[in-house]
Amino acid sequence: MIKVSELNFTYPGGTTRTLHELNFEISEHEIFGFLGPSGAGKSTTQNILIGLLKDYQGSATVLDREISDWNDEIYEQIGVCFELPNHYHKLSAKENLDYFRSLYQPPTYQPEEVLEWVGLTSDANKRVSDFSKGMKTRLNLARSLIHKPKILFLDEPTGGLDPVNSRRVKELIRDLRARGTTIFVTTHDMMVADHLCDRVAFIADGKISNIENPDTLKKQHGSRSLRLEYLDDSEQRCEREFSLDGIGQNDEFIELLKSAPRIETIHSQETTLDQVFINLTGQELTS
Ligand code: ADP
Ligand code: MG
C-alpha cells in the first residue's frame, strides 16, 4: 500500500536534513507504527506521505503511485488525522461531519455511525466550541474516516485522551483494520505502539533504526529479569535482580531462596518497548 525507498527530506531554507534514508513498506490491512520522541521526524514523514511536503528526495509511493504524481484524487483514497484538530467551532459535531462528507464521492459512513464509534453520540448536536480537547481529538478521528478511506494516517491519535478513551480509540483502530483499512500511525507513546501495531519502526533524529513486530523486538532486544526482596539475618531489607534466562540453574538465586530468613516479594520485570527503544537508539521516548 505504501513503499518508501531512500527517502530524504530537508525543510525549505533549512540547513540540516530532517529525514535520512528512510526505507519501509506497509502491506494491506497492516497497522504500521512510527515510534519516536518529539522532533524525531514522524509528522514530517506523514506529511510527505499525504502529499503536503513535496520536495523530498528518493521515492515514496502510495497505492503504487509516486506521491508527486498524485493529484487531489489521493484524498478519496486516504484519510488523515492531524496531530492538532481543526474543526468548524460554530458548527456541531454532526454538522462538521456532514460538511466534510459532502466533499467526497459516495459511499461514505453516516455521521451518527462514526460518532458512535468514537463515543460522541450524545454530543452529536453540541457545538464543537464547547468540546474538550479529548472530544475534539475523537471528532478528528471520526472525520478522517468518514469517506471510507483505504489508508488512514493517524498522527498521535491518543494524544491528550484519558485511559478510557485511549482504549476506545485503539479498539476502533483495530476494528477499522478488520474492515480492511491499512493504518499508518505515529506516536511517542510506547503503549500505543505495543498494543496496536503489527509492526513498528523506531525513529530517532530522522533515522529508522529497526522495523519489527513489537513482541519480537522485546524478545530480541529486551532483558527479562526477576527482582527479589528479602530480609537478611539482621532484618535489613535487601534487593537482588537475576536474569530470568536460566533462573532454574542459577545457584546464587536458589541458594538465596533457601537461605534468606524472610522473602518479602518476588516480581518478574517485563521488558517494555521504551526500554528496548533506549537500548537500540540511545534515546528516551519522552525526551
Ligand atoms: P515529530 O512528529 O516526530 O515530533 P516532526 O516531524 O514534527 O517531529 O519534526 C522533525 C524535525 O523537523 C524537528 O526538528 C522540527 O523542529 C523540524 N520541523 C518540523 N516542522 C518544520 C517546519 N515546518 N520547518 C522547519 N523545520 C520543521
Ligand atoms: Mg509529530
Can you describe what's shown?
- By secondary structure, this protein is an alpha/beta fold.
- The protein has two domains: 2-218, P-loop containing nucleotide triphosphate hydrolases (Rossmann fold, 3-Layer(aba) Sandwich), CATH 3.40.50.300; 223-269.
- 32% of the residues lie in helices and 27% in strands.
- It has ten helices and 13 strands.
- The chain has helices spanning 42-49, 74-77, 93-102, 111-117, 133-145, 163-178, 190-196, 214-221, 251-259, 273-281; strands at 2-9, 19-26, 31-35, 57-62, 65-66, 78-81, 151-155, 182-187, 199-204, 207-212, 225-231, 237-243, 262-269.
- It has a six-stranded mixed beta sheet with strand order 6-7-8-3-9-10, sandwiched between helices. It has a four-stranded antiparallel beta sheet with strand order 2-1-4-5, with helices on one face.
- Strand 7 (151-155), helix 6 (163-178) and strand 8 form a beta-alpha-beta unit.
- The protein is globular and about 75 Å long.
- The mean pLDDT is 93.
- The chain binds adenosine-5'-diphosphate (ADP) and magnesium ion.
- The site of magnesium ion has 4 residues, from helix 1.
Mean pLDDT: 93
Strand order of the largest sheet: 6-7-8-3-9-10
- Please state the second-level CATH architecture of the largest domain: 3-Layer(aba) Sandwich
Strand content: 25-35%
SS class: alpha/beta
Q: What is the number of helical segments per DSSP (H or I, 4+ residues)?
A: 10
Q: Briefly note the CATH topology name of the largest domain.
A: Rossmann fold
Oligomer state of the chains in this structure: single chain
Summed up, the domain count is 2
Shape: globular
- Under CATH, the homologous superfamily of the largest domain reads P-loop containing nucleotide triphosphate hydrolases
Assign a percent range to the helix content: 25-40%
Helix-strand sequence: EEEHEEHEHHHEHEHEEHEEHEH
Q: Ligands bound here?
A: adenosine-5'-diphosphate, magnesium ion
CATH class of the largest domain: Alpha Beta
Radius of gyration: 23 Å
Tell me the distance between the termini.
32 Å
Instruction: Please give the number of β-strands.
Output: 13
Q: Could you describe the largest sheet, including whether it forms a barrel?
A: 6 strands, mixed
